[in-house]
Amino acid sequence: FHSGEREEKCIIEDVPSDTLVIGNYKVQRWDTHKQEFLESAPGLGMFVTVTTPSADVLLSKLYGPQGTFSFTSYLSGEHIICLQSNSTRFVAFAGSKLRIHLDIRVGEHFFDESVVQAKGKVDEVNLRLEHLIEEIHHISKEQNYEREREEKFRKTSEETNGNILWWAIVQTLILISIGIWQIKSLRDFFISKKLV
Predict the structure, then answer these.
(1) CB 49: neighbour CB atoms within 10 A?
(2) Rounded distance, CA 44 to CA 4, Å?
(3) Where do the TM regions start and end (predicted)?
């Protein structure tokens, strides 16, 4: 995505509890002379802030023009990840455009092939098995989190349906009472005018 030099950009990532989140980014600065983005932005860093669903700051750190940040969520829900350059220019002079390449991986445990090649075949099978077990635990956490969200949504839907039912009953009672009042008023009117 593109960003201004002093502009803060935030993304929302829905993360289950106790899950590792790894983010890789790279910043490129617009060169007005060449009319293209430079491969890197030397001297420019990124300030990364991660906020939990309960508005607690989980991570707040300054990184270089290219880097990796990681955090482990302790609450399930929407985590806000914000990136802002550490440019020291005044806002009026900070007109440079930035291109930020961001890759976020949720719950991923990296599998290091070099470690596997250095060990024997039995160790390779053990490492792959451990990696698969970690993946199964992650999938299980994701499913539990989705179940919790579905249960919360179902409760909200049932409460809304109950409220709609009571509103319909109240409207019906109001309509019936107004109808009875109108009939009584017309009857009293006709009796007073001696039409009945």
Answers:
(1) 16
(2) 13
(3) 164-183
pLDDT of 69-103, one tens digit each? 988 888 888 899 998 887 666 444 445 788 888 89
Instruction: Supply the DSSP string of the chain, one letter for each residue.
Output: -EEETT-EEEEEEEE-SS-EEEEEEEEEEEETTTTEE-S--TT--EEEEEE-TTS-EEEEEEE-SEEEEEEE-SS-EEEEEEEEE---S-TTT---EEEEEEEEEES-----HHHHHHS-HHHHHHHHHHHHHHHHHHHHHHHHHHHHHHHHHHHHHHHHHHHHHHHHHHHHHHHHHHHHHHHHHHHHHHHHTT--
Q: What is the pTM of this model?
A: 0.58
How far is C-alpha 189 from the chain's CA centre?
Answer: 65
Q: Which CATH number fits domain 2-109: 2.60.120.380, 1.20.200.10, 1.10.1840.10, 3.30.1330.200?
A: 2.60.120.380
